[in-house]
Structures are given as structure tokens and as C-alpha cells.
Specification:
Elements (H helix, E strand, L loop, with lengths): L5 E4 L3 H14 L4 E5 L1 H9 L3 E2 L2 E2 L3 E4 L9 E4 L6 H8 L8 E4 L6 H9 L6 E5 L4 E3 L2 E3 L5 E5 L7 H13 L3 E2 L4 H22 L3 H5 L3 H19 L6 H12 L8 H7 L10 H10 L5 H15 L2
Parallel strand pairs: 1-2, 1-6, 2-5, 3-10, 6-7, 11-12
Antiparallel strand pairs: 3-4, 8-11, 9-10
The protein binds NADPH dihydro-nicotinamide-adenine-dinucleotide phosphate (NDP) and ketopantoate.
Length: about 300
């Protein structure tokens, strides 16, 4: 069945960016933002903007009966995923395809557990630099979604998805090995997000040579070592690939984790250092750089 409409749950930096993109391309009636009544009231009363344009979104109250979505995008932080899964359940029908733009390597497992393997296409959100300040979202790069099947098949549902992206002129990539690709993004976030949260910097700080960039690279090398211990073939070339992407981001932009810290919200550190330090211990891989970053981030969060 052809994809004709999109629903999005999570109206943050990425949610606004995607809701704005698809609303402009498909029309307001084809794009729903799913939320509870209180959030919808708050969103409707605030002036949400994306790159300075005022947004006019269609909201759907998750307490009301609703038609299933053709494509459902989860764009919440990991701490909000279980609640969002319960909230979005009425929008999942027989033919709904689900994407998660969440970072880390866990959200697809949670979505599969909730909705079944046949609904969830693996996805990595990459190369964007979306920044949310109050109700205003700005970005210099929309980035792209890397999508694929775990076994590398060019399946019929993947074709449905890419046909839809082609029609909407939405940028995407089809990596051959989605698991390796997810770990590549984990390598990026574990180095970049944690370093900039600890150093309180923008992308500029790690785009130039210096202590912060070296620390970031050290954290990335530990992700490679942990991945290798699990049989995932990441290497120096993957670090270089993600460094090149980082070098191209808006120098004044910030990763999602630094945005959490500025808002004094609990970050997704468990997805990054939390996961790498735990897997390192379990597989006898030393992770001193991540131990330092993870510990420092827990201290910062304890001070809120
Ligand atoms: N920002 C970025 O550039 C990138 C982010 N990512 C990943 O994407 C994910 C989303 O990040 P980001 O957009 O920055 O996150 P934000 O914190 O900006 O936004 C998350 C949004 O989810 C909403 N939300 C939480 N729970 C629910 C719920 N139960 N129902 C409806 N809405 C809910 C929150 O609403 P409210 O504010 O009303 O509580 C919030 O607006 C994260 O996993 C992040 O790591 C990946 C690539 C890039
Ligand atoms: C690396 C980045 C900035 C996406 O490009 C990201 O994933 C984040 O902000 O969490």
C-alpha cells in the first residue's frame, strides 16, 4: 500500500523539522502531530517556528479515535519513548510503517516489542544540526534518514518508503549494513554529544584541532573497540567518515545532548557512555575516556 500520510510523535528539534518539511511538501491534511491534550493546548498557544517561518500543524489528540497512519515517525527522547509508544498505539494499523529517529541502538528493539517486526524499518537520523530554543527550531542542514532492513534486503516495504521519500523529495540513504550503520552513528554521538556537553561548546569547538577534539576521538575509538568485541566491524575509516560529517555541521549549532543540558533536562547519556561503559565491562574492553565523560555527565545532571 502506497504511503500517503505521515504522523509524527515528539515535537522537539527533529519533530518540528520533519513536521514542517512534510507539511510544506504534502499539505497540512496529510501530516499529523500526535500528542496528548495538554501538549496540544501548549503547542497551539505558542508560536512554533521553523527557520523563522510560523508553523501551522495538524494536531491529533491521542485520546480520540483516529485513522491509522501510513508512516509513523517517533521523534521523542529515549526517556519518553515508552509513553510515546502507548500514546501512538491508536495510530498503528495493519499497514503502518514505523521509523525511529532516536539516537542509540535500542529504540527499534522497543518498537518491535510493542508493534512487531513487520512494522519497524531500521532508521538512523544523520547530518542534521537542528536546534530548538523555546518554540523556535532552526537548522542549517536537514540531513537525511538512513533506512534499511537488518538483513540488507531491498524489501517491498523499503521500496514503499523510498517511493514516498522520492515523491516528497526527502533526502535518504540506503546503507548496506544497518547494524554497522547504527553503531557508526553511536560512535559519532558518543564522541560528539558527550564531549560538547562536558565542554559546554558548539560544534565549532570540535571542528578545530585541540583537547576537545582529541577527547571526542578517544571516546569514538572506544566505541570501535567495543563494537569489534561484539563482532561489528567498525574501524578508523568509520571515525574519519563521521569526523567529516561533523566538520560540515553549522559551527554555531549544538548536539541534542548539549541542548538538554542548557535546559537542565536529563540527557540520553545512558544510550551513549552508559551503554559503551557497560558493554566494555562485560566484554573486557577498557573505556577510560567514556568512564570519564559518563561520570562527569552524571555529576552535571546531579547538580540540576
Ligand atoms: N536534535 C538533533 O539534531 C538530533 C536528535 N536526534 C535524536 O532524536 C531524538 C529526538 O531528539 P530532539 O528532537 O532533539 O528532542 P527534543 O527534546 O527536542 O524533543 C522531544 C520532544 O518529544 C516530546 N515528547 C516527549 N514525550 C512525548 C509523548 N509521550 N507524546 C508526545 N510528545 C512527547 C517532547 O514534548 P514536550 O517538550 O512537550 O515535553 C519534546 O518536544 C533523540 O533521540 C535524539 O537523540 C537524532 C539526530 C539529530
Ligand atoms: C550528531 C547530531 C548532531 C546529528 O547530526 C546528533 O545526532 C545529535 O544532536 O544528537
Amino acid at each position: 500500500m502506497e504511503i500517503r500520510n505521515v504522523s509524527i510523535i515528539g515535537l522537539g528539534a527533529l519533530g518540528v523539522m520533519y513536521a514542517d518539511f512534510f507539511t510544506n511538501r504534502l499539505g497540512k491534511e496529510k501530516v499529523r502531530v500526535l500528542a496528548d491534550r495538554d501538549r496540544i493546548k501548549r503547542y497551539s498557544e505558542s508560536r512554533i517556528t521553523c527557520n523563522g517561518r510560523e508553523c501551522d500543524f495538524q494536531y491529533a489528540d491521542i485520546a480520540d479515535p483516529m485513522e491509522p497512519a501510513d508512516l509513523l515517525i517517533f521523534a521523542v527522547k529515549y526517556g519518553g519513548l515508552q509513553q510515546a509508544i502507548r500514546g501512538a498505539a491508536p495510530a498503528v494499523g495493519e499497514n503502518t510503517l514505523i521509523l525511529s529517529v532516536l539516537n542509540g541502538v535500542s529504540s527499534e528493539e522497543d518498537l518491535i516489542e510493542a508493534f512487531g517486526e513487520d512494522k519497524v524499518v531500521f532508521c538512523v537520523a544523520q547530518k542534521m544540526d537542528a536546534l530548538k530554543d523555546g518554540s523556535s527550531v532552526t537548522y542549517a542542514h536537514l540531513g537525511e534518514l538512513a533506512v534499511g532492513e537488518l538483513d540488507g534486503r531491498r524489501s517491498e516495504r523499503l521500496r514503499r518508503l523510498t517511493d514516498f521519500f522520492d515523491q516528497a523529495e526527502f533526502p535518504y540513504e540506503l546503507p548496506d549494513d544497518m547494524k554497522k550503520h547504527e553503531w557508526g552513528k553511536l560512535l559519532c554521538n558518543t564522541g560528539l554529544n558527550q564531549t560538547l556537553m562536558v565542554y559546554e561548546g558548539t560544534f565549532e569547538l570540535v571542528q578545530k584541532e585541540g583537547e576537545a577534539r582529541e577527547l571526542m576521538k578517544g571516546a569514538m575509538r572506544e566505541v570501535v573497540a567495543v563494537a569489534n568485541s561484539l563482532g561489528i566491524e567498525l574501524g578508523e575509516a568509520d571515525i574519519d567518515h563521521w569526523l567529516e560529517i561533523i566538520n560540515g555541521l553549522n559551527p554555531k549549532g549544538e548536539p541534542s545532548m548539549r541542548q538538554d543540558a542548557r535546559a537542565r533536562r536529563k540527557s540520553e547519556v545512558e544510550l551513549f557512555g552508559g551503554t559503551i561503559c557497560r558493554l566494555g565491562r562485560e566484554n573486557n574492553v577498557p573505556t577510560p575516556v567514556n568512564d570519564f565523560l559518563y561520570g562527569r555527565i552524571l555529576e552535571i545532571e546531579a547538580s540540576y
